[in-house]
Structure formats: structure tokens, C-alpha cells
Specification:
It is a single chain. This protein is an alpha/beta fold. Helices cover 35% and strands 17% of the residues. It is built from 18 helices and 20 strands. A five-stranded antiparallel beta sheet has the order 13-17-16-15-14. Strands 2-1-5-4 form a four-stranded mixed beta sheet.
């Protein structure tokens, strides 16, 4: 099945002067949804039933008899992806009318808990009626903040996706990640003014660092007002490329090159090169994003769960610049869309699907929900409580056990404001210590001596043994020797015991061995990400975690030779 290589004419028209008006109209519609979601939710149910009836799934669950939400919950059991996989495999084999009447045109891929990749069917109906419209709404908020005039292709650096050629397929269907999408599929799809901008185009063979640096080169002379991405680590990475390669950027700007190579349409800019060189002399530690783009006035990214732990780094590289959250967007669907200035949470996107919730407590080990678990409606959520999400979307994931946890932070009109907490059961517990990313982050922050410089990049790796224990892999500051490492390890161990009493008890009884610090060369985690990308991991799957699920990362560190002598 061929993927469209160019846009239909109606879609190209949407990129013109009507673009910002369209985003603002979508934002207004989203705000109205918050005031009264009932008619929209009823329409979503009718649409889901219309998509499912007459399909193999619809026949298996006798959906011809279903007309209400209560009947829907009685007819369709809650499932995780593995239970839905047989239906998806039939789609990939070319069978029609399996999960939805609208046929898939591609499959989005993401990692699965079983180790096998998940393939999420993508239909034009789902893309047009749901996902595309949701993206317009969230961008309306951003343009409302920076000013409608700044929607041009050279005023926005959108790092949330790249246009890349399709390089993989299954059963004749294109397969790609949510952040690497080749083309729009119709007039309702997301087609911003920068759709054809050279900096948006990516290459699977390009080094990750060079990809970020290339964008800096191509937009060096532009008045960028907004940088948008999903994970804040990408903005930090962009800033690190600018800081570390400032002299190289000056040279590229002066010559009109990118990474030292001529690029069609890129011209020398001696005046800008001299300006940047003067700024670099005044700031020998390296250029900041605001040195390159003095008009930068908004940063957008996730700012909750583990992404929220990047706040210090993000503020360091974009000091004083306002921050807004990106929508809670996963491969399987959109869950929240920001409509106001809240820094980390947004109201439930009730127009994107049917959403149900199951109360969550910290004792939940991440086991799949039972098929007929009783669920709550969005209006039944209590502020301050956390919930597991069950969602039904028109891509065919019906009553899907997402495995994500959200906390209700009040309401926006009649809808709950939700903050993403993380994956259910994500943590490590050899002997009942129930270690989490937040524990590790807090311990390292407490142990780190501010005099050493900025908080280092690190991760904690569970390591089996007799007894088992944890290795803290840290990009080590140059000039600090063994005595500093020993002191840091002791301080991190003590802090970890303070913030996690269960860990302290397991250490006291010697069921866990002491925390070991593994010093890594600067830039190691960037090298790890690049190695993962070369081995086929999609950009959305390459996420930095403060706590790993297993010891595989230690093997990769050894293979790449990144560890410093201890």
C-alpha cells in the first residue's frame, strides 16, 4: 500500500492565511467542550459504534444490539494490547472490516511491555475526525500566547515530529513512529505553515545530534518565537548542541553551510556570523537559545511525570521564558489538550474518545485490569486522587487498558483537569523496596554538591546478584576524582534511604547491596540514544529514564566503552 507522497490541493489551501484562524477556532471549540461535554461524548459513542458495527470485532461482541454507554461497557471487556493483538494481526494480513469500517492506511509503532512492538492502526477517519482536530486546538493556545502574526514557518521550531520517508512496512502497510510521519492524508489533517520547511524534514540515517544542529543552522537567521516538542530532553539537547558547537555554527553561518556542507537555498550571512561571534566572546561557556533567537517567548513540552524532572535543566537553558504543556499525546491517542496557562496538566479531551477510569493506589503492580473491572466516568473523579485510564478510540482500540496513571487536579468547567503521573507499575522492586524514578531523582539532587556545577545526567540501573543492588550511572564532571565520587555515592545512598524507608530497611537487613556509582564520559547518554536509534528504536521510544527496568543498559555502556576508570 503506497503512502501519499504529496498533499491534496485542499490541504495545501489550509496552510495559508486561514491557518491561525483555524487553530483559534479549534481552541474555542475545545473550551466550549469543557463547559458542556455531554453532546460531544454522545456523538463519540455513536461514531465508535458506527465504526465497529459490521466488523469482526462488532460481530464478536454483538455490537448491533448496543446503543448506550452502559450497554457498551457490558458488551466489551477491558483489554490490554496483547489481547487485541490478534485483531490487529488480521488487519496487517490484509483482512478488511476487522476493528473499524474505515480501513487502516498505516500503522504507528511503539514499544510493548511484552518486548514485541505494538502496531496501532491508523485510519483516515480517526486522523481527520479526531487526531488532526486535536492538534489544531492545542496550537491555538500557543498562538494565542505568542501572537497570531508569528505563525510563519521561520517563527516556530516544531520538534514534536519530523517528515521522514517511509522506510519500514508490514503486510504492505507503512509503519512508522508518531514522531516520524511522512505526509498528511487530507484536508482535516495537521498541516502547519512549516509543513514543507527544510528543517522539518528528517533522515533516519542522520545522527541525532546532527539533526538538532542542522535545525539550528537552518533557522539561525530567523526570528524564532516558539520551540515546541514532546519531551523536554529534546530542548535541552538542542541547547547543548548550541552551547557546545557555537564556534562551528558561526563558521557555518558565515559560509552558508550546514555541518560544513553546502545546502541548496542556504546563503552565507557574514553579518549574523559576526553578531554571533561577538555574543560567543561575551559568553565563553557557550551560546544560549536566546542569543540565537532574542525573540523566543514560549517553550512547549511535557512537564509532568518523569518529564517534570527536567524543569531545572529546562529553566537553565531557557531562563525566564514561559512554559506551556504539550497535549498528553501517545501513539494510541490524545488524552488531554491544554486550554489555559496550567504548566503541566490539561482538561480531558472528551472529543477524542470514550474515557473510563479505575482508582489507582501505589500497591498496584501494573497487572492488567480484569476484563469486567468497574470503571468511573470522567465526572466521578475526585480531585487529588489518581486513576488508571481505560479508553476507546476510533482507531479500533476499544476499552483499551492503556497502562497509564493520571491524577485529577480539579476541573475545567465540567471536565477533570488531568496530569499524567506515569506508567502503572513502572519502578523496581527486588525485595519489596518499590523504588521509583522520583526516589532516584530526589536522592541524586540531594546528594549533588552545587559547587560541582550543574546537576549531571544520570540513570539508576537494577543489577541482579547475591544480594541484588543498584548502579547509578552518571556523566561525571571533568576534574572530579575518586574522593568526590566516593562522597557522592555515600550521599546518594543516604538520601535514597531517607526518601524510601522500604529501601532503607532492605539495606539495613543486607537484602540489597550498597548503591554503586558508575562514572561515564560526558556525552554518554547522547551516544546511548544514537546507538539505540541505529538499532531501530523510534524517536518516541528513545526516552531518558532516571530508573531502568532491567540491566540491559549496563551491557550497552560496556559495549560502547563509555565508563570511566572507577
Amino acid at each position: 500500500m503506497a503512502f501519499p507522497s504529496s498533499l491534496p490541493a485542499p490541504t495545501r489551501d489550509a496552510v495559508g492565511e486561514n491557518f491561525v484562524a483555524r487553530t483559534l477556532s479549534a481552541l474555542a471549540r475545545q473550551r466550549e467542550l469543557c463547559r458542556d461535554p455531554r453532546p460531544v461524548a454522545e456523538g463519540v459513542l455513536r461514531d465508535l459504534l458506527d465504526q465497529a458495527r459490521g466488523t469482526a470485532f462488532g460481530r464478536d461482541h454483538e455490537l448491533a444490539k448496543v446503543t448506550t454507554a452502559a450497554q457498551w461497557r457490558r458488551a466489551v471487556p477491558i483489554r490490554g494490547y496483547e489481547a487485541l493483538r490478534p485483531y490487529v494481526e488480521r488487519q496487517l494480513a490484509g483482512e478488511a472490516d476487522i476493528l473499524t469500517r474505515s480501513a487502516p492506511y498505516a500503522f504507528l509503532t511503539t514499544s510493548g511491555s511484552s518486548g514485541r512492538p505494538k502496531y496501532i492502526p491508523t485510519t483516515r477517519h480517526w486522523r481527520d475526525r479526531y487526531r488532526g482536530r486535536g492538534l489544531y486546538a492545542q496550537w491555538g493556545l500557543y498562538f494565542e500566547r505568542i501572537g497570531e502574526a508569528h505563525h510563519a514557518a521561520d517563527r516556530v521550531l516544531d520538534l514534536s515530529w519530523e517528515r521522514t520517508p517511509v522506510s519500514r512496512s508490514r503486510g504492505g502497510f507503512p509503519v512508522y513512529s508518531i514522531s516520524r510521519r511522512p505526509a498528511a492524508v487530507g484536508a482535516e489533517d495537521w498541516v502547519p505553515p512549516w509543513y514543507d520547511a527544510p528543517w522539518l524534514r528528517g533522515d533516519d540515517e542522520e545522527e541525532y545530534a546532527d539533526s538538532l544542529y542542522r535545525k539550528l543552522c537552518l533557522l539561525a537567521g530567523s526570528d524564532v518565537r516558539m520551540v515546541v516538542t514532546l519531551n523536554p530532553s529534546k530542548i535541552v539537547g538542542l541547547a547543548e548542541q548550541l552551547e557546545g558547537r557555537g564556534a562551528e555554527l558561526v563558521d557555518d553561518v558565515a559560509k552558508g553551510t550546514v555541518c560544513g556542507r553546502p545546502v541548496p537555498g542556504t546563503l552565507p550571512d557574514p553579518w549574523l556570523a559576526r553578531t554571533l561571534e561577538r555574543r560567543l566572546r561575551r559568553r565563553p561557556e557557550g551560546l544560549r537559545l536566546s542569543d540565537l533567537w532574542p525573540g523566543l517567548s514560549l517553550v512547549v513540552c511535557w512537564n509532568s511525570a518523569s518529564a517534570g524532572l527536567y524543569r531545572d535543566w529546562l529553566e537553565k537553558v531557557t531562563p525566564g521564558i514561559p512554559k506551556l504543556p504539550f497535549s498528553t499525546t501517545g501513539t494510541e491517542g490524545i488524552v488531554t489538550i491544554p486550554v489555559d496557562g496550567h504548566p503541566s496538566a490539561g482538561p480531558l479531551a472528551a472529543d477524542q474518545g470514550l474515557f473510563e477510569f479505575v482508582p489507582y493506589d501505589e500497591g498496584d503492580g501494573g497487572e492488567p485490569l480484569a476484563p469486567w473491572t468497574q470503571t468511573l466516568s470522567p465526572q466521578e473523579l475526585e480531585t487529588g486522587r489518581s486513576y488508571r485510564l481505560v479508553m476507546s478510540q476510533a482507531n479500533g482500540l476499544y476499552r483499551y487498558d492503556v497502562g497509564d496513571v493520571y491524577t485529577a487536579l480539579g476541573t475545567v468547567g465540567a471536565l477533570p483537569r488531568l496530569e499524567f503521573v506515569g506508567r502503572v507499575g513502572f519502578g523496581s522492586s527486588f525485595t519489596g523496596e518499590k523504588l521509583t524514578e522520583a526516589h532516584v531523582y530526589q536522592a541524586v539532587r540531594e546528594a549533588h554538591d552545587r559547587a560541582w556545577g550543574n546537576l549531571p545526567v544520570f540513570t539508576c540501573v537494577p543489577c541482579w546478584g547475591t544480594p541484588p543492588g543498584y548502579v547509578l550511572a552518571v556523566e561525571w564532571t571533568a576534574g572530579l576524582g575518586r574522593s568526590e565520587r566516593k562522597g557522592f555515592a555515600a550521599a546518594a545512598e543516604a538520601a535514597l534511604q531517607r526518601c524510601n524507608p522500604e529501601y532503607a530497611e532492605k539495606r539495613r537487613t543486607e537484602r540489597l547491596r550498597p548503591l554503586r556509582v558508575l562514572p561515564l564520559a560526558p556525552g554518554s547518554f547522547l551516544a546511548i540514544a544514537e546507538a539505540q536509534r541505529r538499532r531501530g528504536a523510534a524517536a518516541m521510544q528513545i526516552k531518558h529514564h532516571w530508573l531502568q527496568r532491567d540491566g540491559a543498559l549496563l551491557e550497552l555502556i560496556e559495549e560502547l566503552g563509555l565508563a570511566l576508570p572507577e
